[in-house]
């Protein structure tokens, strides 16, 4: 096993082994771009180290060999007194984890070599500046010294000299600062700052390994669902210097705008600085375009390289670069993060440029991004009080109470408050606050600042660099230039698409993408924005290739019509229990209370025309498309009043000697129907078999509604679905009765009816005996909510609050099985039931209804096991269409 790869040995496809940064440094090296030489220690080495607690023995030798080679190539030795080679030790996991892991620059500097560096560069100030940076970074990230101690000392040095910028400190000041920094290290750790360059390097490598298991890194991985066992690679890269003077500098850039996708020059540049300075927002950067007038040659070269990278990666890339005395060096590139809107635009732009095809375009976007684009925006016509404007870093409209620290953000959001986290700038310590907040607002930093990068990654609204806002975290308030004071708890609204900040709550309106799906905006129209056009095109690609059909869960004509506008190809689940609420509840009550057949029949008779009318409307809204109607499913007591309320009412009436005959009967019924485990009790098909006339009334309503629609020249395609079947006998009994009713309706109306009858597969027994059940079912709809409950033995209503958090934290599952289908367990049952069902009845129709039908990952699974359709709530339909297309492309 080889643990170390030279940059010339790797390539971009080795991310598992070399991490993203290492793989891309190798790729750029092999593209012939100017990358400072170096090597990458593999993630395997990290894993071995983390498992055994010490580095593998071969690692040390391999590192030595690669260091030797590097030293020979560079013509200097690591930390050599008169002519030192300096390196950076950089973390880099497979997935980028902004700010999570630690990087140390200028390794190899010591009391001995600092003079050598000064001589090499003919610049004493630079050498001491580099040394103080090394002690600062190394002290903080490797030795665990509180970083503020260094920052305070730096501030003191500036204050003593009455200067604002660290560039105003001269060699002598920095030399003094180095001495102070060394004292800080000694005081905090009880040891001297290590002077041996190889020891510095080895300690830094270990620190990178260890940072994989740091709390922040773990939290980020949980958030982003990155597995915990990947490990990080470590890159050792020879240093180039952006802090050598005004002809040097460092910057970051995107090959196109990560917010809009537009091509152009996007980035920030900072003269006379080292890499970290740009991101940290220590000094104000200039827009990248200004580099053209600062250093035309490097600028032109950079533009050329960016074009090379885009054509090579066929995607938006972000890059880090440094200019050392007019010589440009590439320090990092990766396929860049982008907003949801930009993802859609860039995908279609790249198709137009001929760089990718439609199938690839589908892989460049995803359902989560589409869902994000369907979020509402602020109402443009609302009266607003704008109090500031920053950079639109991550889109969305967020409203919440101002909080100024992460702790409060978490605390308030736990108690149900919506909060906006306001900071001067964020750092990795703010992560839990950022997660808890509706949105993030900072007064400093650009599009590449920590807040912006992390918020975009989380899909959270963010406005950064709102400079006219003076954020005072100590006093928990912010002041605007015009003197408005926002205290903790005051409501603010931030617009991540425009960068505007408002005082108070701004009303929100639907997104243009939803307007488009609703048919209120046409992609072809002149005023349709680029985003809508891009979404329109991508949806067309998806619809063209997908095999899964997408239906809606809808119980009324209004939802059905909306679903249809959103692209639904029918209704996969109409829950009839929703038709028994409101004023109809009284009939259900009477049905439940009925002592005699007459009473029962009377209430069923009252319900029949109401049900029928519901179905007429539904079939009309879905004319020509299938509508699956599920017969009554929930336990009856759900239709009865709350037991405590009712008891109180009865007791009061008794005390007051008022009549309470009816309530008393109700109370008795509630007691009679009470079940310990209602989800496993008298519900679904069991109701139909136990309460005479209930299911036949529903079937009659469906049949009569269908007949009426046919009479009106409509095309109703009703499918009758029996819930909670465990054995084929249950289904056969219901089927016999249903067929009889349908025959009666046909005879009465003279209309020929074709009604399909099928069942839900939502009990393990049904899944296991699916082959038998298919004898009596023309279709299966997998009810994966109940199936998950019954396969795992989880009560969905209880587990999320009780132990799921612990399970997620312990990594027993990465995501709730109610959110994404558990492929190995529940999924395996679905898979075998699909096969068994088709074996019995080759033309059986197979679908899924329930939350999983609109979950991206689950949709891919349902495609793979060969279902015919998924059904989900109307709003998720575009997401399901897109994901079905992505699964098939
Ligand atoms: P991160 O993953 O946090 O971006 P990096 O490893 O990319 O960490 O390094 C942090 C900063 O230091 C970046 O701006 C990077 O460009 C700069 N940097 C890293 N290695 C070198 C080097 N060898 N020479 C000059 N600058 C470097
Ligand atoms: Mg970087
Ligand atoms: Mg169910």
Automatic annotation (TrEMBL):
Domain Pyruvate phosphate dikinase AMP/ATP-binding: 56-284, 290-341
Catalytic activity: pyruvate + phosphate + ATP = phosphoenolpyruvate + AMP + diphosphate + H(+)
Lineage: superkingdom: Bacteria
Keywords noted in UniProt: ATP-binding, Kinase, Magnesium, Metal-binding, Nucleotide-binding, Pyruvate, Transferase
PEP-utilising enzyme mobile domain segment(s): 417-499
Enzyme category, top tier: transferase
Sample GO molecular function, one term: pyruvate, phosphate dikinase activity
Cofactors required: Mg(2+)
EC number: 2.7.9.1
Coiled coil location: none
Pfam families linked to this entry: PEP-utilizers, PEP-utilizers_C, PPDK_N
Similarity comment: family membership: Belongs to the PEP-utilizing enzyme family.
Name of this chain's protein: Pyruvate, phosphate dikinase
Organism: Streptomyces roseoviridis
Lineage of origin: Bacteria, Bacillati, Actinomycetota, Actinomycetes, Kitasatosporales
Gene behind this protein: ppdK
């Amino acid at each position: 096993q080889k643990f170390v790869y030279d940059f010339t040995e790797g390539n971009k496809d080795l991310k598992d082994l070399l991490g993203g940064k290492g793989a891309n440094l190798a790729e750029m090296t092999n593209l012939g771009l100017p990358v400072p030489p170096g090597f990458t220690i593999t993630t395997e080495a990290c894993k071995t180290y983390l498992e055994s607690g010490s580095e593998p023995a071969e690692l040390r030798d391999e590192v030595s060999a690669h260091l030797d080679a590097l030293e020979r190539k560079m013509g200097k030795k690591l930390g050599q007194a008169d002519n030192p080679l300096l390196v950076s030790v950089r973390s880099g996991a497979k997935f980028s984890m902004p700010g999570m892991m630690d990087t140390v620059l200028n390794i190899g500097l010591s009391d001995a070599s600092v003079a050598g560096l000064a001589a090499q560069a003919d610049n004493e100030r630079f050498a001491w500046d580099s040394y103080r940076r090394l002690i600062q970074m190394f002290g903080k990230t490797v030795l665990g010294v509180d970083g503020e101690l260094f920052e305070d000392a730096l501030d003191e040095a500036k204050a003593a000299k009455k200067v604002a910028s660290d560039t105003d400190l001269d060699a002598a000041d920095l030399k003094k600062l180095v001495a102070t920094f060394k004292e800080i290290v000694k005081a905090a750790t009880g040891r001297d700052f290590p002077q041996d360059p190889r020891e510095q390097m080895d300690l830094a490598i270990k620190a990178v390994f260890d940072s994989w298991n740091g709390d922040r890194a773990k939290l980020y991985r949980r958030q982003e669902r990155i597995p915990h066992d990947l490990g990080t690679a470590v890159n050792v890269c020879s240093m180039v210097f952006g802090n050598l003077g005004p002809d040097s500098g460092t910057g970051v850039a995107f090959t196109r705008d990560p917010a809009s996708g537009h091509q152009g020059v996007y980035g920030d540049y900072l003269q006379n600085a080292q890499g970290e300075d740009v991101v940290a927002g220590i000094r104000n950067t200039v827009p990248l375009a200004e580099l053209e007038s600062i250093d035309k040659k490097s600028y032109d070269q950079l533009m050329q390289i960016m074009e090379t990278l885009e054509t090579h990666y066929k995607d938006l890339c972000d890059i880090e670069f440094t200019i050392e005395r007019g010589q440009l060096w590439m320090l990092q590139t990766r396929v860049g993060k982008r907003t949801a809107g930009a993802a859609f635009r860039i995908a279609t732009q790249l198709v137009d440029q001929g760089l990718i095809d439609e199938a690839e375009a589908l892989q460049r976007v995803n359902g989560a991004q589409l869902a994000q684009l369907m979020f509402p925006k602020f109402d443009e016509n609302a009266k607003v009080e704008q109090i500031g404007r920053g950079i639109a870093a991550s889109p969305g409209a967020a409203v919440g109470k101002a909080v100024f620290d992460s702790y409060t953000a978490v605390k308030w959001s736990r108690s149900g408050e919506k909060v906006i986290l306001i900071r001067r700038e964020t750092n990795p310590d703010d992560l839990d606050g950022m997660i808890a907040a509706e949105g993030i607002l900072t007064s400093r930093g650009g599009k590449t600042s920590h807040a912006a990068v992390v918020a975009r990654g989380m899909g959270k609204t963010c406005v950064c660099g709102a400079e006219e806002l003076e954020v005072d975290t100590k006093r928990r308030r912010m002041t605007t230039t015009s003197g408005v004071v926002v205290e903790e708890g005051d409501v603010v609204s931030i617009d991540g698409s425009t960068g505007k900040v408002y005082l108070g709550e701004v009303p929100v309106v639907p997104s243009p993408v939803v307007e488009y799906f609703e048919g209120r905006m046409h992609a072809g129209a002149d005023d349709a924005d680029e985003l809508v056009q891009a979404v329109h095109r991508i949806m067309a690609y998806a619809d063209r290739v997908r095999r899964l059909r997408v239906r809606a869960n809808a119980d009324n004509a209004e939802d059905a019509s909306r679903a249809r506008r959103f692209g639904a190809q029918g209704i996969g689940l109409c829950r009839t229990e929703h038709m028994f609420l409101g004023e109809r509840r009284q009939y259900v009550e009477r049905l439940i209370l009925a002592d005699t057949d007459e009473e029962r029949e009377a209430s069923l008779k009252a319900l029949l025309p109401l049900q029928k009318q519901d179905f007429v409307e539904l079939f009309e809204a879905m004319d020509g498309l299938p509508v699956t109607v599920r017969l009554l499913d929930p336990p009856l007591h759900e239709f009865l009043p709350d037991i405590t309320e009712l008891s109180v009412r009865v007791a009061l009436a008794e005390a007051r000697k008022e009549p309470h005959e009816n309530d008393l009967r109700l109370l008795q019924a509630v007691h009679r129907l009470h079940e310990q485990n209602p989800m496993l009790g008298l519900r679904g098909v069991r109701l139909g078999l136990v309460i005479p006339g209930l299911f036949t009334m529903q079937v009659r309503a469906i049949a009569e509604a269908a007949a009426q629609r046919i009479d009106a020249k409509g095309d109703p395609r009703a499918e009758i679905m029996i819930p909670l079947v465990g054995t084929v006998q249950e289904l056969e009994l219901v089927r016999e009765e249903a067929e009889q009713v349908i025959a009666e309706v046909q005879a009465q109306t003279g209309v020929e009816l074709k009604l399909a009858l099928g069942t839900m597969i939502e009990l393990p027994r049904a899944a296991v005996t699916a082959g038998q059940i298919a004898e009596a079912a023309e279709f299966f709809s997998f009810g994966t909510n109940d199936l998950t409950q019954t396969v795992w033995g989880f009560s969905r209503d209880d587990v999320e609050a009780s132990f799921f958090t612990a399970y997620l934290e312990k990594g027993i599952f990465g995501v709730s099985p109610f959110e994404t289908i558990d492929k190995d367990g529940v999924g395996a049952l679905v898979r075998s039931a699909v096969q068994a069902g088709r074996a019995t009845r080759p033309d059986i129709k197979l679908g899924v209804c329930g939350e999983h039908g609109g979950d991206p990952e689950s949709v891919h699974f349902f495609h793979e096991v060969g279902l015919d359709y998924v059904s989900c709530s109307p709003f998720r339909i575009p997401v399901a269409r897109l994901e079905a297309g992505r699964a098939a492309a």
